[in-house]
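thought: fold this chain, then report.
action: predict
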Amino acid sequence: MSNKTGKSDTPSKAGKPVIRLKNIRRVYKVGVERIHALDGLSLDLYENEYVAVMGTSGSGKSTLMNVLGCLDRATAGSYELDGQDTTKMGDAALAAVRNERIGFVFQSFELMGRLNAIKNVEMPLIYSKDGWWSRHKRAKNVLKRVGLEGRMKHRPNQLSGGEKQRVAIARALICGPSILLADEPTGNLDSKTSEDILKLFDQLHEEGQTIILVTHEEHVARHANRIIRMRDGRIYSDLTTEQDPVHKETLQDDVLGQK
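observation:
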């Protein structure tokens, strides 16, 4: 659970956190009103964790994702990624962090329609110092990793929803990021395809990938091993999936429904 400061009370883990947030605040001005989207939030996330972030609209989960992804700057507080304080970085340094150390997967895929799968996956390497010359080989390898070795030359309009999301996941992985951030990655998919994509996330986690998933769906969150629930810009629950009371209740309902 969390305390009144918004800091997680989950027992600390061995090793150094990949992500460390300390008293993060994000305030937006709307006319004369000040909206506290994140209100003194502190959080540690560790290597190879699979974390689901949940909350209703306005809870702050999307703002937290934007801050974690260095797409938005906190108004106050510190954010350390792999031991480096991102709040002290300039725009160019943050762009490099987004490109090389954080992989993004979006609900709407965000693929370029005129490019085939392999060209879409290569895109982040255009801005990489080391990856440009090996981009084609690396893109082929990562597409194989997500099960699309037979669809590399297809454009987005020739792919199913699940295949588009696999291309998006491959693109997110191409630079070997420390963190994979996924924002409602199954929101545009049917139930069967959603489960296939979630199984892929499970596989990536088993291979050592750190994953942070924003979702409002309990069946999606149960794939994670830690569930963080937000309300009013704060963490009010931070538990393992097995400890989470909502997960237990949902699981019990599923069992009863099968009888």
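thought: worth noting. The beta strands are 19-30, 33-45, 50-54, 76-81, 84-85, 102-106, 179-183, 210-214, 226-231, 234-240.
final: tokens above.
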